[in-house]
Structures are given as C-alpha cells and as structure tokens.
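quick one: glutamine bound model?
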Amino acid sequence: MVRTLSIGVIGIQGAISEHIGSMKSALKEANTSGNVFVVKNEEEINDLDALLLPGGESTTISRELYRSGLYNAILKRIKEKNLPIMGTCAGCVLLASEISYDTNDIKPLKAMEMQVVRNAFGRQKESFEKEINIEGFDASYNAVFIRAPIIKKIWGNCKALAKIKKKIVMARQENILALSFHPELTSDLRVHKYFLDMII
Ligand code: GLN
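yep, here:
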C-alpha cells in the first residue's frame, strides 16, 4: 500500500499558505501522496512525518509555540530524532542552539548545532534577492531574503549547504534543514523537493 505522508505547517505567522502550496506542488511533482496542513495542537505533532516552520517574527512564534504546548511536543520528536523539519528565516532562528543577537523572549529548539544572528544583513538590506549556489543543486537558485538571519557558526554534525561570501544561509543536520531565505515565495520548488527527499 502506498503511504500518505502527513506534513504539518506551523500556522502562527508568515507565508503559511505559500508553504502549503509549494509543498503540495513538490509532492505532486514527486508523485508522492501526502496531506499538508496547519498544525493546531500538540497531539498532531506526534503523528507527523515532517514539519515546516515558516518565517515571521521569531520572538512571536517562539512565545506562541511555548504557550500552545507545541514547543514541548516538537522538542520531544527532535530528541527522538524522528521528525524531519524545515525551518525558514525565523524558523531557522528557532532551530538554532545559540542565537547571538536580540535573543530576548526566544526559546530556541536547539535542534541544530549552529549559532544564528538575527537580522544579520542590516537595515539597508532588509529584503533582497540573490542567486546562490546550493550544494547538490545543478543550477543556481534565486533566493529571497527578508530581514534574514545568517548562520554564523556551525559545529558537530551540522553541514553548510549554501553561503553568501562567508555567511552560511542554508544548513542541514541529519533530518533537519534550516534556510535563512524564503523558498515558499518563489515558484522554484527545488528546496521543497530537497526536503521531501529527506522525508521519503
Ligand atoms: N527577522 C526575523 C526574526 O529574526 C525573521 C524574518 C523572517 O522570518 N522573514 O525573527
């Protein structure tokens, strides 16, 4: 029997419907059956095959995750090492072990051995697009950055997959993926497909 994947999206802030749309299209192109939906309660976390953590404001998302009980449910699955997660922008901040700027109120999930700097591109560069090279991709990728963090340091099992000069903008640690940009805001599905390959 063909398994239907359950892919949850945290629905607190950010481009939630765009993530759902991109993930559904990626599933379709990969000929894989799956449901993609907004996660509402902690019980649902236990049954997920994968989780998407969209961007937004990491302080707000962190507070709501904690208040709703989702934080502890996700943490449990991270400790069991059986929940693939993709975090984009603020989602990347929340996956870090260390946050080095304006960390008030943020309770990171510490899922990846990396240090993240929030809003690291400065005010004049609040949002921009840039062609980047992603390890394993056969052509360059147009990445959209919005008040983006950078991954300043990685250690242990965390691997850099893309950089702008020396700044890491995409990293992976086993089944967890962090990006400082927004793949859901372009029609290029390669990042969502890459994540799908990590699930199936
Ligand atoms: N600057 C935001 C933060 O650190 C992230 C921005 C985004 O997700 N687009 O929370």
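The chain has six helices and twelve strands.
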